[in-house]
Amino acid sequence: KLEHRILKVADYIPHLVKLNVDSVYFCPVFESSAHGYDTADFSKIDVRLGTNEDFKAICEKLHENGIKVILDGVFNHVGRNFFAFRDVQEKKWNSPYKDWFYISFDGNSNYNDGFWYEGWEGHFELVKLNLDNPAVKEYLFERVREWIDCFDIDGLRLDVAYMLNRQFMRDLKNVCVSKKPKFFLAGEMIHGNYNEIVNPDMLHSATNYECFK
After folding, report:
1. Among residues 31, 72, 154, 159, which one is catalytic?
2. Residues near 157 by beta carbon (within 8 Å), at least 6 away in sequence
3. pTM of the predicted protein model
């Protein structure tokens, strides 16, 4: 059901300005089946939030008030309703998208798909993408270009960056800064060595979940 909840962000902008907030990070906003991290369509704002036009209007209002927009880049995995995975479900080994994922036709999934696939850390509603596949990379990079062109976003927070393909992050940075030189990239680090991903070739910053220790 279409709702326009994202437009309510406009009500908070005066308060954000009063607090001198200069950037806003949105958790996943694109169409998904459940919680946002199981993306079904990287090009369409989730109907529970509104439309692409709604979100563009919010981004414009934030920018008018000197507030930058950071989106959640969920590139490690997609939901089971993602178009390429649904094609594999239908056509199995005849699908042109079978190499977009880590699949074995010698096994079976928890959902009885007739093939095994890798999920994110054992969560099989989250289908792991093969980021070594040039077609997958170009598909995702084209979506990021669209987000910059359509919403004029200023940065991305990369979901589960601690386990993302390192070359993918290098290539992503080149794509982003070629479109917008001051584009900001932060990575989610649940654990591990921050220096592996925060460096001149990859990301500008990272989350620090271990700081509480």
Report:
1. 159
2. 25, 70, 71, 72, 73, 186, 187, 188, 207
3. 0.96
